[in-house]
Batch of 3 targets.
Target 1
Amino acid sequence: MAHQVEDGVDTAHLAEEVVELADGDAVLGMLLRRPPVSFPQLTDITQLGSWRRFVSRESTKDTRAEVTP
């Protein structure tokens, strides 16, 4: 993710999300992005460098799992 700076603020770690207020209203707010570990069902593919490399690796895993010695 490219770091963007707007009005002197690094926005790389900010996300626009819906926030529910105490009275039940929903509004948009700027929040700090939660790290991937906050979502155990997600996989961080940063080290792989691209979505295509991740998909390729996963398809190779599936193929190897089907092969039995």
Target 2
Amino acid sequence: METIDTGPKQNHILGSLPDYELTPLRDHLERVALNPGWVIHEPHTKIEHVYFPTSGVVSQIFTTSSGTTTELAMTGHNGLIGLAAVLGGEFMTHEAVVRCPGDAYRLRASRLRRALVQGSVLQAQILGYVQALIMEISHGVACNRHHRVEERLARWLLQNADLNGGHQVRVTQETMGDMLGVRREAINEAARKLQDQGLILRHRGSVDITDRQGLEARACECYQSLRHHERMLPAGYHGSGNSGGNGDLGLHKQTHHAECLNQMGHEHTSWPESMIMQGLNTQQAELSEHIGDLRAAYLEIENLKKQFEDLYEYAPMPYFMLGANGELERTNIAGAIMMGIKHSDFERQPFADFLDKNSVAQFMQFYRSVLSGRCREGCDIALKSTAHRPELAVRLYGAPDEDGAECRLMAAPLSQTHRL
């Protein structure tokens, strides 16, 4: 894919460097295209090059032993890929994959390590990025454990848009599910809710943010918290721009910072190498600790999710998940048997289609009451006969989700004459 060469200064780390630090690196910087799906680094492989993106988005991904993937952090023009190479390590601990196309400048890791010893601004900028990365991973641990999928998706889309500098995110629903560590069905439902609220517009392979202010209000608190912490980082580091997704302001501040340093000429003092390595090793220890916490949290969540899914799937009582318009979205095995449908393969259709015509109006009134949170009683209705049973009278009990946008139903036969 052909992209426009925006120059190394479009990367926030390289763009903050004064000429006397950037010039020695220029001859060693190699421009490369970031094509979607390219695996820049794989886990446990030696890091030969680091990459400074000027556009596009790279996901840094953790994969569990069962194959479940979760995004640790996103990197664009705010940072670099291959950070372990300058933190005292030689091997990648996780996977780095291009998600949105763009450009980057590649530099040998050994060359960057030598430049770190000599360049005081480069030292400060990389340490600032490490601090930002630690904050992002830390927030990710809390976010994935305590916030709803819809809120997390809103935050994720905003972060992508900030790094891309626009209002369109090129991504599939499957990829969004992988990055957030949730089922594709959950992502589809969360995206549908955001679209129904007029906040986004879904296309095949992309998502447009149509109401940024509204999406920010819908996102979890982590988004604004990360922006607040980013503004507190050292002068010159303004990773993803402001909360409006415009990176020009951050780049202008960096350019001004670099010009001030240029006026000082070469009369600057580099930090002692021992102090640099001590600072980097401290940051690496903190980063490793947070990644370890994240790994433990995801393993715990994965085990709990599996236990819940088993309880749900094999429960003797029929359970149903209905959307805002009363369409059947999910059921367990007992529910599929009761409705006479295939559990593993069924199309979304109105729950009312399974009811006797005399029960439809009563059910719809009950369902609207459940979604509004006003209903506390059950509803007696009759299910149509199927190939395996006659008409069946059941009592439904319902509870809305947190947003009142979908409903969970449990069905109990009123008579023991018809057994499942």
Target 3
Amino acid sequence: MILTYCRAYPKVVNALKEWYSEMIIAEKGSFQEEKTNYPNASLVGVD
């Protein structure tokens, strides 16, 4: 899904790569913890 978005919006590729790298190496925590680093983040696809 990220690659599809990168193809559609090439100007954001570097920002998405940086975010993805941070998420891979970050410890698993709660969504609320992630809001500290990314205050504008929102959950997507939560049922």
